[in-house]
Amino acid sequence: MASGETITSSEYISHHLTNLTYGRFPDGHWGLAHSAEEAKEFGFWAIHLDTMFWSIGLAVLFSYFFWKAGKNATAGVPGKLQNFVEMMVEFVDNSVKGSFSGKNPLVAPLALTIFVWVFLMNLMDLVPVDLLPRIAGAIGIHHMKVVPSTDPNVTFALALGVFALIIYYSIKIKGVGGFVRELTGMPFQTENVLLKPVFFVINLFLEGVNLLAKPVSLSLRLFGNMYAGEMIFILIALMYGAGVGMGIFGGALQFVWAVFHILVITLQAFIFMTLTIVYLDMAHSEHH
């Protein structure tokens, strides 16, 4: 928004919750939306440029520092970066050993990537809510959401990626027949020939819902917690415009919430990683 422009509380909240969206307008031309209403007109194929920028940028940052630590690793006295990376790798490795009973060299690197990447995206929630949007506004960018994990497109993309691996390894380990039997043979079983088709349908429905609930729960849990945290920061920021006394109280409240939120962002990254490991372990396990 323009510097010095007077806006209402609802406009302030709406502005901070609107992504920088690129898409096709109803008249056929492509461009950036300047309001939430214009963004809705783009439909499904709209692209959130700020989400793409921050999520990819954080992935590149994470990859660079871990690559640098690996390249400069030494058996002697390690540096701070190597110490940190080794600590993270050991932490994730212990989590995988405790939750994954199969053998798959992909699981540990995947778990490490998920934990660090989700944590970094969540960590952006601790950046003052007006700092980066004001900088963006100064160079002509009217919207800038800097917390990728508050965008359901990101959380659902991560969850669907995990879901694709669950399906892939379920079929690879158990075969198509084994995977189908897993979906249709439990929890109800019978030797009665007449009841078997009925139980087949019931089991398929129950297990199908259970299977589809995995990516939905993964994505919505992360999105819901981070969106709520971002909203609280925005509501606290509104207090700065209500006078000196409220501004001081808001500053103290923001500090307390930020300290508590450190636990939230870490816990959400850990939960996403742990559930991914557990779901992949279930995909590798054969039920008899």
Description:
With 288 residues, this protein is mainly alpha-helical. It has one domain. It has nine helices and three strands; from the N terminus they run H-E-E-H-E-H-H-H-H-H-H-H. A three-stranded antiparallel beta sheet has the order 2-1-3. Strand 1 and strand 2 form a beta hairpin. Helix 4 crosses helix 5 and helix 8 runs antiparallel to helix 9. The longest helix is centred in the last third of the chain and has 43 residues. The termini are far apart. The relative contact order is 0.13. The mean pLDDT is 89.
The gist of it:
By secondary structure, the protein is mainly alpha-helical.
What attributes characterize this protein structure?
3 strands, globular, 288 residues, single chain, mainly alpha, three-stranded antiparallel sheet, 69% helix
Topology readout:
Blueprint: H1 9-16, E1 21-24, E2 30-32, H2 36-41, E3 47-48, H3 49-71, H4 80-99, H5 107-123, H6 131-138, H7 152-184, H8 196-238, H9 244-284
Antiparallel strand pairs: 1-2, 1-3
Helix pairs in contact: 1-8, 3-5, 4-5, 5-9, 7-8, 7-9, 8-9
